[in-house]
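Might you be able to review the protein record set out just below?
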Amino acid sequence: MTHRAPHAAHDHEAHPVHQHGSHHGEHSGGQHDPQHETDGQAEILDLDAEVLAEHIASITAWLPVEAAPRHIVDLGSGTGAGTLALLERFPDAEVTAVDTSAGHLLRLVEKARSLGVADRVRTVQADLDTTWPDLGTPDLVWASASMHHMADPDRTLRQVHDALTPGGLFAVVELAGFPRFLPEDAPEGRPGLEERCHAALDRHHAEQMPHRGADWGPKLAAAGFTVEGERTVDVNIGPPHTEAVGRYALGSLRRLRGGVAGTLAAEDLAALDQLLDPDGPHSVLRREDLTVRTERSVWAARRR
């Protein structure tokens, strides 16, 4: 894996290019344990899939497929949120899952095995910025929170177009940003902390990922696709919330801290650390007012 920046902070999905240490940023310089980062990232991806399962299912149900796909490619599959949702949505399909992380792909296969669908999954470990693997001729390609990580996304769009069977569909799913969990007046003594963290993270992302937040419609059209559908899925979960949401918030905010620690005021950093102490009285795990708030934008584009 290649680290582009020492404080990388990325989205809640795996991506098929360089892993950059973690999706949200975890380490703050100095030594770090790549295996610990991979395991922590995988846990966040699994929680993301659990907490947002209903929203992922609504996106797969919305896809304007002309005929049930038999071969699907999941670009940047992570630990399998999209892969498993697509296997459930299309029971006659097989999915080729592509990711840079061997650990994430192994976890995906383990989950598929536990659900009895491992025989319908093929995994490919690849960095799409360097080599486009042989993915066959899929009927549907799914790319969730992966396109904006590409060094040359326009080239990737053309490669997807050429790989798809005529009439095949390309689904691009992108996050509007890092999810929010806390009320605006939280925490006590430092209200608005989360928004200040988001502002710092957005500045970082503007430097590291210029394609984040792009309108993919024109890019898809330029690559030869016909855009047949576009929608925004609003996510607003809780309260009350499940125990998984608490762990999701804790793990996510830990990674957010890694991306913004160097730019936060000392008082904000101290307040954030109190939220991140799982055993402390101010732990995010003890809050009953957590929500999960974000948006996902979806484009469905067809190769004619």
Summary: Residues 34-303 form a domain with the Rossmann fold fold (CATH 3.40.50.150).
